[in-house]
Amino acid sequence: MSVSQTLLAVGAILILMNVTMTLNRSYVLAISDTIELQNDIEAIQFAQALSESVFSLGNNPNAMVQHFGQFNDINEPANRIEFTTALGNTLYAALDISDEITLTHGVTGRIVTITVYSEDAGQFELRAQNIISVNQR
Questions:
Q1: Residue 134: beta bridge partners?
Q2: Contact between residue 57 and residue 64 where contact means Cβ atoms under 8 Å apart
Q3: Nearest CA among 73, 72, 129 for reference residue 97
Q4: CA pair distance 74, 88, nearest whole angstrom
Q5: In the prediction, which pLDDT does 135 show?
Q6: Predicted TM-score of the model (pTM)
Q7: Which residues 6+ apart lie within 8 Å of 120 measured at CB?
Q8: pLDDT tier at 26 (50, 70, 90 boundaries)?
């Protein structure tokens, strides 16, 4: 085998390696993006589920505050709501319930801000936020 044939074979192998690495990198990035998207969807669904729980107590504002009022500090384990996702990640939620205020059209109620976080290396990262108004029916 001549030197030119050897260099041609080595060049072909290098090109094949480059193509394979590019395909693998694209595959890994696609999986990473899919997992991040799944985490975002689960955080949104968690916030929505909490919204529905808050709405279910909307007829009794005192019960709503009594049930959810203590979950207002994401840094304190006793004062947050935790949820483990299908992927095994833990989401944390904190609720901020306002005092009775006048909402639109003279209706009185409360504004509830539901904030969902994930934890990465001891730092909380905002994943979803849902702001709802709750009034007595």
A1: 110
A2: yes
A3: 72
A4: 19
A5: 84
A6: 0.79
A7: none
A8: very high
